[in-house]
TrEMBL record:
It comes from the Eukaryota. Keywords: Signal. Residues 405-426, 434-443 have a biased composition (Low complexity). InterPro entries: AB_hydrolase_fold, PAE/NOTUM. The lineage of its organism: Eukaryota, Sar, Stramenopiles, Oomycota, Peronosporomycetes. Residues 1-24 form the signal peptide. This is Carbohydrate esterase. Transmembrane segments: none annotated. It comes from Phytophthora sojae (strain P6497) (Soybean stem and root rot agent). Residues 405-444 are annotated as: Disordered.
Amino acid sequence: MVHLSHVTKAAIALLALPVLATQAGTSTCEVTDSDACAIDSLTASTDDGSVLIYPGGDTRCAFDDYTDSVTTFASNSTYFFQVFPAAEASKKKLLLFFQGGGACVDKYTCDFALQCQLGASSLITTKASVTDSGIMNRTLDGNVFNDYNIVYLPYCTGDLFVGNKYLEPYESVYNQALGNKQCLGQDQGMYMNGYNNTMAVLKWALANYPDPEQLVIGGYSAGSLGAQMWSAYVAKTWGVESKGTKFQVLADSYVGVFPEHKTPASELINYYGGCGLVGFPDSMAAECEAETATVIEMVSSLMNEAPSAEWLFIDSIADKTQRKFYELVLLGIAGYPFTNLLPADEFYGNMTEILDAYSAFMNVTRFNIDSDQHVWLTGNTYESAESLEGGYLGDILSSWLAHPSTPEATTTTSTSTPEASTAAAPTPAPTTKPAPTTVSAKTSKPLAFSPQAQQLQELKQLMCSLLPHFNLHAPLC
């Protein structure tokens, strides 16, 4: 029997995508048959200027309520979303922003027992949470979204906001090999309910902000891909093409670099049950269900549904989290401890290839940063992030959002492929000109085995020795 030490659990935490959210006091409203929680009838919190809305109905998070006293893991089934009304009740500008927070990829990772056993390092967020940082920070001077109505969609289903299926309780040999056995036998299935949650939020948003002059859909990390997947549906639902609404898609730190040679991205969307739900044309929905469509093919088909849209991709050229998720999709849980990430230059090359394909027919702006940091818009110094060509994120966003003028598509990639780098924390922006984000060079090379990595390697070897007894096989065994 293998029990994970504290350092081993810390190493496993490398797989978990970060959840960049803080708790904040808010006023609340529960949707009922007699109360639709109309925004005009609500008073925003004096703490952060937001309102929490509980839509009820068929919304919920992945797991039933549970708190583990040993691992500190906790799940909560209740779903809610957060709204930041604009000042003076103006409804001209609307931002729909999807939270990030990990994703599971197969039956070995999409199960309650594993999340519970990993405790605070669970691979997905399992409770809805609120935020008041970054572009949602109303007290941040110079925040380009301060005059927007912001509808913030929390993420607690591990399915990139497109899931629509229930997974029966499942425990594998991996669970048997891990410690924290109190997490086993809880008989908890997983509700991939991202589709229902998103639909409930969009229904409310449409009723309360039906005719914005400017509509932005965006997200960070897993929420970035969620925003891309929902872009065509939102464009059609709000009638942006017929109304001439300025429609934009803001994708922070997830382009969609997948190991397509092994696992087409559509295989993941189909596993969640989302191929026929998010606005794909019929032909693309069929390719998605056949698990043959790539990221480029899926997103391009959605872009074509709203040809006047403007897209902005914000990415670090050596983003470690995107590269780790690539390895998770490629190798599954058997790939621990992921000591050899996709080289930074290959990641950047793949990302560039994807964005080049989009730029061939769409208005696409890129803001590439010489860093391995994951996620930018949730930090209170996001405006000072500097692109490869020396532009500042605050300035680029301000220009991109400018209304009614439509900026031409721009590209901030350099002619050569830079090596990976590590960014220091961005310095606060002065009142005149933001300070650049400082970076230091770092070459891309395989990581050496640390003691905790060695422990995980031994755990993997043990698992591999057990699998034949169950007539199972894992990619690295």
